[in-house]
Amino acid sequence: MELVCPAGNYPSLKAAVDNGADAVYIGFRDNTNARHFAGLNFTDQRAIKALDYARNNNVRLFVAINTYAQADQWSRWQYAVDACADLQVSALIAADMGVMAYACEKYPELSLHLSVQGSATNAAALELYHQQFNIRRAVLPRVLSLKQVQALVKKSPVELEVFAFGSLCIMAEGRCLLSSYVTGESPNTAGACSPASAVRWEQRANGGMDTRLNGVLIDRFSAYEQAGYPTLCKGRFKVQSEAEEKIVHALEEPTSLNTLNLIPQLSEMGISAVKIEGRQRSPAYVAAVTRIWREALDACKANKNEFQPEGRWMAELSKLSEGSQTTLGAYSRPWQ
């Protein structure tokens, strides 16, 4: 299985490449990608440098153009596709049908991957994307059970990729209605859950920190807690029960996906690639997660029948995860 790793900047790309990634995915510095945060992503020149470093190390480079194009900004998405073709990247990851149509009609030689944002959860959807846009791979949503994934592999006309490690979201693969409600900007169009223009950190007199999203208080941290990036779904709020009032994660506890122990099953069923989430994370994070997954995939390949995640892998990943960990998120649910 191919190990696909994130890079929000050039140091992260080098970290992924140097620690064993088979492919690295990046985005351009605008709202054509779903990690459009200040300080992240690549200019044209930076993308050329990234491509050179990846190719010199026999690593493939993917570019995510995975938001939904807006009518008054369509030329921006066209330019992004044109740039991918000029760079001759290994693959373009897209969700918008208009973007895919433009890419496959103008650049038929450009390899298209269906983003998880496209939400293809059945064989008919995969067949449609393959017939209409000649996609060569699809990234599956995490709402599927493991048995559903297995059934899809048997019928899919294209390679399939699944998420392996990283933060989970309660929304359906980036379709964040909560962020849209509070900020008026959808991650699917603006490219960011909790856009930076709406985020505020406020220091309190006692050393603590308040975080707000468009004026809405999302969380209140003590002086001894690290203040996380404010997202509405993972904020802490007052919740009143019959017995008492508590301040808790009302919608979702911070949770990370960890599928390390499922590597043999995913390999056996024919999954082509496993993907690490985290273009918004640090180079140190990318390096550590990539290294562990490289070791684990190599160990499984050497002896699939005896493979077991090593304790040191799990211990390190627990330090890097967001809150608790779960096995393949919703993938571990029973057949539906």
From TrEMBL:
Pathway: Cofactor biosynthesis; ubiquinone biosynthesis. Pfam families: Peptidase_U32. Keywords: 4Fe-4S, Iron, Iron-sulfur, Metal-binding, Ubiquinone biosynthesis. InterPro entries: Peptidase_U32, RNA/ubiquinone_mod_enzymes, UbiU. Its cofactor is [4Fe-4S] cluster. The keyword Iron-sulfur applies. [4Fe-4S] cluster binds at residues 169, 176, 193, 233. Belongs to the peptidase U32 family. UbiU subfamily. Forms a heterodimer with UbiV. Required for O(2)-independent ubiquinone (coenzyme Q) biosynthesis. Together with UbiV, is essential for the C6-hydroxylation reaction in the oxygen-independent ubiquinone biosynthesis pathway. PANTHER family: PEPTIDASE U32 FAMILY, UBIQUINONE BIOSYNTHESIS PROTEIN UBIU. This is Ubiquinone biosynthesis protein UbiU. The gene is ubiU.
